[in-house]
Every structure is written in C-alpha cells, then in structure tokens.
Amino acid sequence: MSFRRINDDILRGLEAPGLAYFAGVSLALAVLALALYAFWYQVEVGLGVAGYQPPILWAVYITNFVFWVGITHSGTLVSAVLYLCRARWRTGIARASEAMTVFAIMTAGLFPIIHLGRPWFAYWLFPYPNERQLWVNFKSPLIWDVFAISSYMTVSALFLYLGLVPDIAASRDRIKDWRQRLYGLLALGWRGTDRQWRHLNSLYGFLAALVTPLAVSVHSVVSWDFAMALTPGWHSTIFAPYFVAGAIFSGVAMMLTLLILVRRLLHLEKYMPVAHFENLAKLIIPLSLILTYVYLTEFFIARYSGSPFERGTLLDRAIGAYAPFFWMMVFCNSIVPLLFFFKRVRTDLRALFAISIVINIGMWLERFVLIVTSLSHSFDPAEWSGLYHPTWVEAAITAGSFAWFFLLFLLFVKNFPVISMAELKEETTREGIHVA
Amino acid sequence: MSLLDPGMNASLVERVGRRTFLKLLGAAAPAVAASACSPIPPERIIPYVIPPEDEVPGVATWYATSCGECPAGCGLTVRTLEGRAVKVEGNPEHPVNQGRLCIRGQAALQGLYNPDRIRGARRREVMNAAAGQNRLTPVQWEDALAALTDRLRMARQGGRTNRIAIVTPLLTGSLDRLFDTWAKAVGARRLRYEPFGYEAVRTASRLCFGRDGVPHYDLARAEVLVSFGADFLETWLSTVEHSGGFAQARRLRNGRKSRFVHVEPRLSLTASNADEWLASQPGTEILVALAMAQVILAEGRSQTIPAAEVTTIRNLVAPFSPDRVADRTGIPAQKVTNLARLFSDPQAGPGRSLAIAGGVASSGSNATGTQVAVHLLNYVAGNVGTTAQFGPDASYGRVSTYREMADLVASMRAGEVDTLVTYDVNPAFTLPGALGFDAALGRVPFVASFSNVLDETTARAHLVLPAHSPLESWGDVEPRAGVRGLMQPVMEPLFDSRHVGDMLLDVGRRLGGDVAAALPTGDFYKYLGSEWQALHAQAQSAASFDDFWAEALGHGGVWRTIAAEKVALSAGIAASSFVTAELGGAAGAPVLVPYPSLHFYDGRGANRSWLQEIPDPVTKAAWSSWAEVHPDTAKALGAEDGQLVTVESDHGKLDVPLLVNAHLGRGVVAIPIGQGHREYGRYAAGRGVNPIALIDPAPEALSAAARWLSVRVRVTPRALRPPVPRLQASEQQFDSGVAQAVSLADLNAGRIEAPQPHRSLYADHKHPVHRWGMAIDLDTCTGCNACVAACYAENNVPVAGAEAMYRNRTMAWLRIERFVEPSAAGSDTRFIPMLCQHCDHAPCETVCPVYATYHSDEGLNAQVYNRCVGTRYCGNNCPYRVRRFNWFEPDFPDPLHLQLNPDVTARSVGVMEKCTFCVQRIQAGKRQAKDENRPVKDGDVVPACAQTCPGQAIVFGDLNDPQSRVSQLGREARGYHVLGELNTRPAITYLKKIVSPPGAGVNRT
Questions:
Q1: What value of ipTM does the predicted structure carry?
Q2: Omega before B39 cis (within 30°)?
Q3: pLDDT digits (tens, 9 = 90+) for B80-93
Q4: Which positions in chain B touch A121 (Cβ < 8 Å)?
Q5: Chain A partners of B810 at a C-beta cutoff of 8 Å?
Q6: Of the residues A167, A173, A291, B372, which has the maximum number of CB atoms within 10 A of its CB?
Q7: Stretch 247-276 of chain A: residues touching chain B, C-beta under 8 Å
Q8: Of A51, A121, A389, the CB nearest to B869
Q9: What does A386-407 look like in DSSP terms, one character per residue?
Q10: B857-890, pLDDT tens digit by residue?
Q11: What is the rounded distance in angstroms from the CA atom of residue B241 to the CA atom of residue B98?
Q12: Which residues of chain A are within 8 Å of residue B870 when distances are taken between CB atoms?
C-alpha cells in the first residue's frame, strides 16, 4: 500500500460527482427548502402550527434536539476515545465519524432555536454584555445546555479541522480545480515538517483528551434538562449515564448506517474492512444492555420510591395511550441489538445497516416517549393528556434536520478526504510497507 | 488598511470628484429620507382639549347599574376608563347579589362588545325570492321608524285590534309599564316571554294559597335544604342570590353544618354540591315530596298549621308513604323517611328547612302537581313565611305562560297577526320545534325586531331597529317586590342603536291621534324620571327629587324589605291529584332530559366567546353539545363514549356526540340547552344541537307551562366520532390528593392531619413589607365558573377558540377542577379552583433561562412578558400546570378589543402567562393607601376572582399581617397545600371540604 495509492483511492472521492450524488444533494435541498418554509410559517404564525397539546409543551423538537445531540457521540467515541486507547482499527472510520459529530451538533444546535416561542430573541440565552444589567439564569439547565453545546461544538470542530489539515494539504497538492484555492486557505500553509507534525500530534492528543469529557458532559447536561425538573418520570439521577450511554448507542448506530453507505458508494472496501464494522457492532451490545438496565431501573425506582406520581407515570408509559411506542422502543433498543451476539449478523453488512436504522428509530422513540409520557401524565390528574398528534410543520422540520445533516455530510464527503490519509500512511509505515 | 490609506483606495477617491460626490449626496438624501418614512401613517393622539369634569385619564369611573343577562336583576358596578366599560362587578349594596356576580354577569361585556352586533338600522332586501336569497341592508333610522309606523298603521286600519303582537322578555319597572301602555294604545297584544317561566310554581301557589306568585326563597336560613331538581346554582330564579345564601347556610357553625339533599336524575352542578344526591326516576320527584309530607304528618311533626289543615293535607298525602313510592322513584324508603324527619326536626323548630323544585326534573306533565307537593311540604314544615316568603314575590309572577305563546303561534299561523314586533326574545330557538313557530312566522307579513343581535328570530325580521344593550340603557329593574334597581348607561352607545323606549315613543307619536295622546311626553329618560318622581313621593324623603335621584343612581337603586305575608291553605287544595310525569314515545326507551345550561341559560349566552370557551362545570367540555348517558345505558344502546348518535323523538331528531357519564340515572339521555344555533353570530352559529327541537309542544295542563320533560327518545349510534373538546382528562384524582376533604366528625374531633413542616437547603425569600396570599375554601366553592370569567375580563385573557380546544390550548389563568370521589352518599364532588400558587419555592423560577420569571419581594411569582423567549420549561416544571403559552397572536375581534383592561399588558405570541394575583389591583391598592397616607389594610386589594365569587370562597390578603382574614383562614385546621409534599410552599392555602356521611343529620353536638 503505497502513499500514492492511498492518495489515489481516497482523493478519487473528491472528483466530479456523478448523477447519484447530485440526486442526493437535490433531494436534501428540496427537503431542506420545505423545512425552511415550514419554519418560516411557524415563526410567522406562531408555535400553534405545531401539534403542541398542553400540558405537552415539549414534543418533537426537543426529541430531535436530544436525538441529534446523541448522534454527536459517535465521532467522539471513535475518534477521540479510541485514539486515546490506541485502537488502530479506528482509522478507516475516524474522519467520517468526526465529521458526523460536527454536523450532528450543528443540527442539534438548531432545535433550541426552532422550538422557541420567540426565536428572534434566541440570543438572549447568551450572556452578552448589555447596559441593562441582564444576566442569563445560570441555575437553568437550558443555559447549561448553551454552554455545553457551544463548547462541544467548538472543540469538536477544532478537533475535526485539526485532523484534516494534513489531508487538506494533500488535496491542495492534487486537486487542481476551483477548490484548490479553498484548500490552500484551509491548509494554513502546511508543509509537513517535522516540527509541524509534532505540534499537530500533541494538539490532536490534547483535543482528544478534552473532547472526551466534553462528550460525557454535553449529554449529561442535556439529560439534566429533564432530570432537574420535578416532573415524575424525569426526576431521576440515572439520567446522565442513561443519556450518555444512549447517545453513544445511537451515535454508533448512525455511524454504521452512514459508513456502510460511504464504503459502498466511494469504493473504500479496502480501507473499511468488515472487521471494523464488526467491532462497532460489538460495541453496540454492551450499550444496548446498559439501556435495558436503565429501563428496568426506572421502573424499579418508580416502584421503590413509593411515590404515587412516579408509579402512575411509569405505569402509564407501559400500558397507557403511548404503550405501542414504548414497547416498540423496547423492541428496537433492547431486543433487536441482541442479534449482534451472533457473528453471522455482526459480519453481514446488510443486517448491520438494517439494525442500525432500527436502533435509531428506537432511540428517537425513546426520547419522544420519555418527554411526552411524563408531560402527559404528571401530578394533577385533571391535566393529564391524550395522544400527541404532530403536524406537518414538525414533520417537515424533522425531515429537514435529517436533510441538513445529510447535505452537510454529502458536501463533506465530496470535498474532503473521508478517511484520514495521514493516519493511513502512518499505519502502513508502521507495518513496514515502504513508500513507493 | 483604512479608507484613508491613500495606497488603498486612491483610485476610488480619484474617480469620484468633489462635485460628483455632492451631486450624489443631493440625489441620495431625499431618497433615503423618503424610504425612511414609515408606510404607516402617523397616529395623532389628541388629548382632551376640554376634559370632562372629574375624568382623569387612567383613573376609573364606576357606574352602578343593573344586569340584563337574565331576569334575576342583579346590581352591577361597572368600571369604565376613558369612556369604555372594561369590567363588570356586583354592586355590594344590592340586596339580590350583594356585590357578587355569576359567570353570565361577568360576560355581559361580551354582549356589549359583541362583534356580531347589528350596528345600525337594517332592512331585509330580497334578492331572489325563489331561491330564498335575502340579506339585511343598512337603512336610515328615519326610514326604518317610518316603515315600522306605516306597517303598524296598516295593521290598525279600521280600528282593528290584536293584529299586532309584541313579544318582549320579562321586563320590569318603567320600561315594562311603557310597553304595556304602548301596546294598549296601539291595540297590540303583548307577551312577556321567558322560556323558563316558572308557571307551575305560580299555579301551585294559586291552588295552595289562593295567590298567584313565585315566593321569595331565603336559602341562607335553611338548615336543611331539599331541592327537587331546582338548579339554584345554575339558572333557577336568582342564582347569585341563592349561591350566596347557600354558602352562608353551609358555613360551619359551632361544629354544625347544614344539610342539602338534591333529588334529580342527573348529577348537575347543583346536585354536585349536595351532601347527598338522590337519583330519582325522571318525573317522580313529586312522589318523594309527597312521601316526605306524609311522614311529617303521620309522625305529628308539623307544628305551625291549624289542625283542620293538617287533616286536609294528611288525607291528601296519605296514599304516598315512602314504602309505596319507593319502586317508582328509585329511592329507598328509609332515605325518604330519614330526610322527612330531618326536614321537620322539632329541635330545630319550624321554618328552618326549605324545599324547592324546579329545573327539568320538575317540568313534566305533573309540574304543577310537583310544585303543589313542594308547597305543601314547606307548609307542613312551617317554612312558609320564613324560608319561603310570599310578599316579596319574584317578578316572575308576570311572565306570560307558554300556552299564551303557543296561542300566539296559532294566531300567526292562522294569518291573524299582521305585524309581529320582538325585543330581545328568540322564540325561533327557544320554542319547541314542533310548535311550528318558523312556519307560522312565514305567515306574518311584517316582522320587526328591536334586538341588536342576529339571532334566529331577528334573522327572519323584515326590519331591524337595534336597541341599546343593557349597559348602554336607562331603565329600572324590579326582580322582586321591594327591590327597585336602576339601570344607567355606563358609556356612550357603541353603535348606531337607540333606546327601545325611545323607539316606542317615537313610533307611537308618529302614529298620532289617540296613540300619541296615550303616551307620555318627552323621551324615555324623562319617563323614567317621572316614574321615579312617584317613587320619591312614596318614599316621603326629605331630600329634593334631584338629590334623591342622584342618591339612587349612586347606590344602584332603592330597596325596602317587604314583610312576609301570612297565607292560609286554600280549600280547593283537597281536590288535587298527584301523578308522575307522562312521557311520550316508546315505553322503556330512554327519557330525554334537556337541562338549562349555566353558561348559556336558555341559549342567549351562546354568542359570548368566554361562555363557550370556559368549560362546562360538570362535563368540562367546551364549544360543543353532547348527550350524556349512563355507561349501562350506553352499552344497551351499543354506543361508545364520543360516538355520534342520532337522538329522535316523535317531534324531531338531531345528531349529537355521546358522553358516557356514570353520575346519571339509567335510562336517561341528558342534553344541555343553549347550543344548536343556526344564526346568532360567529361563536354560536352552526355549533352543537338544540334539544328543544325534540320536546312535546303541548303545554302542561294546569299551569300552561312548557314541558321540558316530555319525551322518550330513540338513540341510534352512528359511525362518526366527532371530537368533543374535553378540558379535564380525568374526574378521578387517584392518589394525588389534590382536592382533599375531611369528615365533619373527624374535624370536630380534631382528627385532622397537620401539614408537614417544610425544610429547605436554601434560604427563604424575605418579604419585608407584604406577602400576598390566598385562602380558598373547597367547602364553599360550588364550581360555578364565575371567577374564571372574571379573570378573563380583568386580565385580557384571550379566547383560543374551538379549534384550539381540541389540543387543550385554553388560556384560562384560573380553572375549576372537578373530582368525584366514590361515596355512599351518591355525591362527593369536589371543586377546586386551580391557579398559580405563587410558590415560595417556585419550580418554574429556577428553570427559566432568561429570568423571565422571578420572585418578587411581596411573594408574587412574576412573569415578565417582554423577557420571555418561550422555551416553556417553566410550564413543564410547574406541578400545578397553571402556566399558559400564547400559541398564536391573541385575537380580539373588533369591538371586543375595547373591553381590554389598560392596566394589564396584552400579551403577544410566543410568551408565557399566568395568574398574577391581579398585580394591577395590588399596585392600585398600594397607591391608594399611599395617597391616603396610611398602610394597606385588609380588604384594600381584592383580585377579580375573589371579588365575584358568590360564595366568597376565595379570600386574598397579606400573609405578613397575622390578623388578616387570609392569615386566619390559613391557620385553620382544615388548611392544606396542594401537592405540598413537593415543597413548593404555595402562597395559597386550601381549606378541605367537609363531607358528612349519608343520612346524617345536622350535627348538634
């Protein structure tokens, strides 16, 4: 495997796109356009165009928010954690997953604005200097979200960018079209000197060590949006580990979905052997088991607490109006991933793809069920609510968030090396294959 | 590199010379100025150049007047600001309502400012007679009055009389007399039409005591109250007066509580407030009353009446012992016997109990018989003259009977009526469909209406001359003998309407001749004055008339107590016969019980959006109609909750969604009256069903009353399931402990849990001056929704509308939760007003990211609307769920926006809102005290809800003052905090409801 070969293989992906690519981008743009229209309509007329049904004051948008924050944990795990653990096999998938992280956090960050009643004042959630002695309320978990998400977004973006610099330089040297100027700018004058490599590696390691606890913190903080409230079904200490585990779970599943596609469409089979996907699948098993444990714990705590409110809410979750969603979630998250115990399933890319989608459906449902059942079955029985019915606006915006994410990912895949060439070259050097 | 750097932009500077620059500037400047001009034209606000005397902008002027929403005639004081009425409250000096007001009274402003009011004289123009296309077109008043005069003249040709009919509601006072004078002069037949006319009571009074009249009932003095269907908390007679009297009677006194038993097939709002609800077979309540009388006489418990009368009555009621009537009424004999003994307790003495009958349960073919039975029951218990008084009779004694209306319809059908004039009545809606009023109306060549809303009757009128609404009118109201309330305009007429009295005088004068001669000179105001001159003379007051008049206007009227007259039993009573109600339709089919609605009364309230939006107090449904059946009946019919059913009688049919209600007799279908309008404005038209379409048009034989309880119906399930907005999901409270109660025995024995002491890791808030709080007595709250309407009026709460209700998007800051606990007494219904608790440890305050909600140093949880970004976290974290979010921009269709209270911010889309403890009133109270250089004292600040509650269930005040009423109530043993275990430390203490076990007496320990 020569360096030239690596460059060829990876940078082939950056060549002029085919019809399929344009179709994908067009579809994403179309859905995004619809979502933008829906959002404009919502801002113009009011949040009433969504399906909110008091006491269900948070529903699809917050579900999406938590879901996308969950997806962000993919990159951090593979890229940073596995890097720190010196897991060599991460190379084929690290860059793509880092990119997924950044795009997912960019998607997630939209939803706290989308769900606001007066989104044009969203900047009030930041403690900007003003003459009116106005501060944000630091006691509010939503403000913690602001800091957690913005810090995570910053560090992940830096992490991604930093890792990209040598590869951008390689692209700059290879690609001769309009993008060369862009690469030239982004490469920051990288020349591959020893000094630059040393600085890069130490910074990369530092950022990896920084972004790892940030990943734990960001989803813990997001989970405290719920745990810090006193609503029955939310007010539980298990939420931080629950959400972090769930996030890694759904992030890894999303990685499987995307990378299987990338591998196929960019013909990168050599660099992403099935064994890597099998490793991811093996990673999913304990996470699924943790989630199962958490579900059981929630019910146990509700019962053990003796609080009629906790018991009532949890029981309603299992047998009330939302029971079909709850049990589907259990099926998707706790039962289906058990199939990964079988090597046959773990190594079959089609099965991996299908199961990863099922997992993400399950994870979306989990957030939805968690939010909506607790809100609809709270303390005062007079204010219990029936089934929530989302409207086209929420559906459009949800679809739009996926479109936005995929659009960003598609743009990334076509314009930046989707596997870290520098790391691949390091791998081959280490294995003793000479430069051609 | 800056623009000043010659190297950078030298070329630009070189190319644009000085002259060119100035030219550009000259061209650009006006363009910029023009575009900077806003496309919105500037508003000119011209202050009063010559301000009215005593009128200070921002300072309210209060006018005393009378309410016109129903014939109860409560006194009002209306708050006006800058010439606009913004809030209606009860007149504290008025003997009927004593400062309190019901939900309909609070909604009076929506009648004044109704967007569908007819704004000027209108004439009906026929565009296409064949297709039935016509519309109302504006017409000049001159022409309208002239047109009416011409038609009247035509109808009077050749000296004919009774070709003209004029139908008004029950009017009293000067306007009523003017109508009579006018009708007589013109030769018209006049009817005072009230759909709920109380004819049976009057006939019963005539039969029993030889005098036509509806007595005055004093519920405050009744230690034992038995109601046979009379919904005195909803529509019966004078609801505010009776609610207040009832609340007074129910207060705990020396460990004793009065007892209230309600007998009717349905657990109505009134029945929900009873100690015991006896579910009777429809139309058999008469037997219960007779059985009670039988027991009282058989056991010699009657003390006050002469022996001869005792014998007469005893013979009359002998066949109706409790045992013999038990299987027909469905009520166990022992219960009736116990009740009779309680009713006539010798220890209490005579005249300490009261029986009343009314509502649909007592409006069948035996209505008169039922009322006779109740009169007799009262008579033998010695209540006549004490709790039931003849003398201060209700003005209902003057209402035309239903048969008179039916006769009018027959005349109309026969072509005997040339001109029909209506004023504020809607017989096209309130008369039974089978009577054929619609068709008969088609045979009247000319119909004129003085109403100012396009209801079903006015929609058929050829000429509409809209009269002022009551809040724009002069007049006087005499709801009962001795009470003469005044009505005065509280603002200039909003639209081009006229006073109906002025119109009568005008038309009469145009007719000329003997008609004009018979009428008083001047306008109606002058006439009113002259009538009051007579009153002034009668009163023999030392003051001049002008002073007397000003005094009366300021106080709202003049009142004197009319002594109760002694009555004796009429000889003819021995000939009475008592039967149960006859019901048309197939035997064994469910009985239709159409019941008058608290909100809509007889349908007149359906065009007021607050009355539609505020949920029904029992079913908690809004903006709709429904048919209630017992679960067993539903199963037998093969229908489910929420399913559309066709309800058909021999006289009509309608489609209505089914509501399964366990608190209903079996074999009963209950449908509320008031919806089902075909016209009547945007809020009422095309909504719900009108059950009056189903009833038998034949009047009751003896009293000529309408027979609301007259048919059995066929109920057929259909495939559709139209959504019915229900604003309360569960009537059971499970283990939540939201609405708590204590038994009387436990309370007296001190077996009551003390609230747990609160502990906190955090320092408490300091309240240096005031700490505002509330005490709400669940034992007094009847669930009547008056406070909810008052809150809507005071705080500019927007109406979300029917569509929004499907997603429970009510904006009500205050709601009444209704929980039904299982009880052997058939009723342990608890009503609990739920509003922002202004928690000292508010969960909502911590979670708002932008500090839009914070704790004031007076204990209020304040919401800053212009800081709210709408994350709604506060709403999620409120355990009481009292926070409301503006999903859309609030809409106040013209002229409802005139009702908005300028002291309260009107919120926009995207912000949260909730109860503020009427902070504007708190501020006003503090300002007042400051102006008067004194501390704020208890009673200075009264929020809108507390102000209007007819039972005074809500008390507000300063918790920092240990002597304030709210502090004292807060210290009572019955006090508790809702969801107190969450350590929210609410500022509202609720007092547990007191329940007494079934069959209990009035505890005299």
A1: 0.94
A2: no
A3: 998 899 999 999 99
A4: 869
A5: 54
A6: B372
A7: none
A8: A121
A9: ------HHHHHHHHHHHHHHHH
A10: 999 999 999 999 999 999 999 999 999 999 999 9
A11: 8
A12: 47, 116-118
